[in-house]
């Protein structure tokens, strides 16, 4: 500002110095007055333009405020932020123009002071002083208008900050609601995981029971094979003895018929005793064969009903009180109850498959919830730059849940593999038992 004043005074002094006569000085003063009037008019036009721009800015702020209270608050917030940035730029430009106008006013004031000092001895001093007062009045009016513009600009900026703070508060509220929804979903997923843990324990118990049942079936199969080998050997020996006894009996009868008329009484008695002993041996062999068939049927029954020797002992000891379900079904026979228990054991495998299907659905639901939670967190970060520590904690929870789901999946796959192996073993046992029964039937 000082440099401008010095240059202005130097220029004015150079222009006025060669004008020594009064007429030239008056003309110079008139020209300076006209130039000053033009500059004042330009400043007035600039002020009016600034007022018009301020009016437009107020209208835009009102529309931005109306839009910020709408339904789509997030979209309005983004558009309002863009408008706020544009208004800030416009305000800064208005302030720059205001500063330029103030600088021009100060330059004009200094210019007028220099003219007043140089024209103090002029005859038109009164007129120039009057014009100077008018110019100062206009400058005062401009100063007042600039003050009003400044105050309105500050009020506009304050209102914009309030709108922005209100929008940020709304965004934080939306973020908190999203966090609450995500927390509720995480709690539900944890409950599902706990239920899956309980189902996993039940499945492990069922697998363990199936393994124990498989071991019992292996032992029962081994005992059954030993008994069948022994019974087959006894049956072969009995058949050989029976054939030998029948042959001896036929020989004895033939011999008795041949010597019936010529043998003595002792020989007849001896032959009669031998025939009686052979007949008793045949009857004992027939009883042994019948007993072997009953034993074979006993083992077939145990195998079909999946009963162990301990179950048979319990049945013989407790009688009508075993199995416990028999107390609720007094009218059903024991065979019906045993078949019912066998069917229930088969139904457990179906329930296990249903549990596996539920686990798969729960895993897919957890994956969908995870995607939704990730989307909600990303939206929260974009809207209000959410808390980093909270996002880290949620990320750790998601990672832990993912590891837990993978572990449950591996355990379920292992249980399914064990169950498939048990089924394969049982099928092999049944095929071997069927082959053994077929061999026994063919030998009979």
Task: Describe it.
Keywords: Coiled coil. By secondary structure, the protein is mainly alpha-helical. It folds into 2 domains: about 1-175, Methane Monooxygenase Hydroxylase, Chain G, domain 1 (Up-down Bundle); about 185-235 and about 295-444, no CATH class. About 90% of the residues lie in helices and about 0% in strands. The chain has 8 helices and no strands. It has helices at about 1-15, 20-70, 75-120, 125-260, 265-305, 310-320, 335-385, 390-444. Helix 2 (about 20-70) packs antiparallel against helix 3 (about 75-120). The model is unreliable at about 1-15 (pLDDT under 50).
Keywords for this entry:
444 residues, mainly alpha, Methane Monooxygenase Hydroxylase, Chain G, domain 1, 2 domains, coiled coil
């Amino acid at each position: 500002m000082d440099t401008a004043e010095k240059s202005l005074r130097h220029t004015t002094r150079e222009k006025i110095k060669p004008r020594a006569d009064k007429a030239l000085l008056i003309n110079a003063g008139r020209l300076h007055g006209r130039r000053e009037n033009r500059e004042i008019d330009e400043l007035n036009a600039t002020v009016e333009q600034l007022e018009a721009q301020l009016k437009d800015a107020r209208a835009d702020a009102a529309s931005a405020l109306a839009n910020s209270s709408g339904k789509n608050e997030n979209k309005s917030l983004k558009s309002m932020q863009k408008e706020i940035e544009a208004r800030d730029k416009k305000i800064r430009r208005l302030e720059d123009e205001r500063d330029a106008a103030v600088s021009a006013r100060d330059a004009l004031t200094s210019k007028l002071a220099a003219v007043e000092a140089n024209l103090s001895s002029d005859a038109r001093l009164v007129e120039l002083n009057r014009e100077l007062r008018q110019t100062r009045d206009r400058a005062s009016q401009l100063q007042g208008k600039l003050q009003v513009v400044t105050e309105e600009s500050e009020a506009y900026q304050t209102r914009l900050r309030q709108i922005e703070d209100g929008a940020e508060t709304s965004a934080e509220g939306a973020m908190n609601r999203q966090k609450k929804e995500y927390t509720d979903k995480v709690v539900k997923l944890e409950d599902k995981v706990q239920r899956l843990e309980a189902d996993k324990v039940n499945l492990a118990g069922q697998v363990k029971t199936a393994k124990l049942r498989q071991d019992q079936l292996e032992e029962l199969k081994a005992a059954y094979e030993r008994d069948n080998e022994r019974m087959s050997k006894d049956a072969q020996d009995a058949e050989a003895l029976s054939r030998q006894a029948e042959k001896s009996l036929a020989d004895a009868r033939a011999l008795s018929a041949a010597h019936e008329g010529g043998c003595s009484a002792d020989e007849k008695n001896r032959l009669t005793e031998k025939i009686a002993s052979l007949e008793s041996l045949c009857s004992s062999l027939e009883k042994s064969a019948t007993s072997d068939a009953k034993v074979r049927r006993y083992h077939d029954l145990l195998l079909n009903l999946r009963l162990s020797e301990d179950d048979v002992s319990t049945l013989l000891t407790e009688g009508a009180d075993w199995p416990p379900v028999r107390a609720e079904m007094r009218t059903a026979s024991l065979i019906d109850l045993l078949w019912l228990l066998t069917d229930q054991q088969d139904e457990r495998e179906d329930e296990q498959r249903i549990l596996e299907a539920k686990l798969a659905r729960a895993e897919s639901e957890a994956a969908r919830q995870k995607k939704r939670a990730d989307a909600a967190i990303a939206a929260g970060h974009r809207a209000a730059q959410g808390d980093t520590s909270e996002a880290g904690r949620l990320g750790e929870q998601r990672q832990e849940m993912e590891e837990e789901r993978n572990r449950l999946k591996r355990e379920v796959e292992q249980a399914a593999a064990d169950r498939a192996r048990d089924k394969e073993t049982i099928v092999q046992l049944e095929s071997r038992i069927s082959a053994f029964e077929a061999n026994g039937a063919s030998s009979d």
